[in-house]
């Protein structure tokens, strides 16, 4: 059986938490001092979502978010875009619409879009309310979640929501996806555990190499 593959891109202002969210999902880690010194092109993870096994290619930006001219090529072939704002940073929230516009102008409606209010562990100093975030998602017709890469809160469920929204070829006649979603999300102990990770890294001398990591690594749904 061939495993269907999907490109998922991460967008949003610098420092909203894109790299940290990916690291939490891939490796179940958080490093407050993480400073990427090399450009990571993408990280790949095979995950089980209900009765499907799919491979996600997670495209981080190594600072390209500052160079908007590069964004269209980055969005090419993306099946989903996760657009982050920082709940303690009003400007990052104000820029959400612009990022979503970029996705829609490059991909039209061929791309799932999810807005994520990042750093939910900093809720006491939030400047963007939950209802504002939800309203924005409703206005822009996207999915929405808050999440914390630091605590891990809602990270798996947001990736699961994105995965469930991805197109797939065959829908069984008796499939009830919303029911499956609720059951599995409310009881993580029943989650399937087929998973593994790899990433392509561009080293400082410009060479590319593949790195692998075994185990679940926080990516089982
Ligand atoms: N408290 C808290 N800090 C976070 C969280 N996610 C990221 N950060 C911090 O925010 C800064 C920017 O994160 P980073 O992932 O590099 O942002 P990027 O530029 O969008 O990739 C770093 O200092 C992170 O440690 C989070 O969920 N909670
Ligand atoms: Mg980053």
In short:
An eight-stranded mixed β-sheet has the order 6-5-4-1-3-2-7-8, with helices on both faces. The chain has a single domain (4-212), classed as P-loop containing nucleotide triphosphate hydrolases (Rossmann fold, 3-Layer(aba) Sandwich), CATH 3.40.50.
How would you sum up the major sheet? Answer: 8 strands, mixed
Residue share in β-strands: 25-35%
Query: What is the CATH class name?
Result: Alpha Beta
Query: Can you list the strand order of the major beta sheet?
Result: 6-5-4-1-3-2-7-8
Keywords: GTP-binding, Nucleotide-binding
Biased composition (Polar residues): 181-205
Organism: Blattamonas nauphoetae
InterPro entries: P-loop_NTPase, Rab, Small_GTP-bd, Small_GTPase
């Amino acid at each position: 059986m061939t495993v269907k593959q999907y490109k998922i891109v991460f967008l949003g202002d610098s420092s909203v938490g894109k790299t940290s969210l990916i690291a939490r999902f891939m490796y179940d880690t958080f490093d407050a001092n993480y400073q990427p010194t090399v450009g990571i092109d993408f990280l790949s993870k095979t995950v089980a979502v209900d009765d499907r096994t799919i491979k996600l290619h997670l495209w981080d930006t190594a600072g390209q978010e500052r160079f908007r001219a590069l964004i269209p090529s980055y969005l090419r072939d993306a099946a989903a875009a996760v657009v982050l704002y920082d709940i303690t940073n009003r400007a990052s929230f104000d820029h959400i619409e612009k990022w979503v516009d970029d996705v829609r102008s490059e991909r039209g409606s061929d791309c799932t879009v999810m807005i994520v209010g990042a750093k939910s562990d900093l809720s006491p100093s939030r400047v963007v309310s939950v209802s504002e975030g939800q309203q924005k998602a409703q206005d822009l017709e996207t999915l929405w979640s808050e999440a914390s890469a630091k605590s891990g809160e809602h990270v798996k469920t947001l990736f699961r929501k994105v995965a469930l929204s991805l197109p797939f070829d065959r829908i069984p006649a008796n499939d009830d996806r919303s029911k499956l979603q609720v059951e599995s999300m409310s009881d993580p102990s029943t989650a399937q555990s087929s998973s593994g990770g790899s990433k392509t890294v561009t080293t400082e001398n410009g060479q590319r190499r593949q790195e692998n990591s075994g185990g679940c690594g926080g990516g089982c749904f």
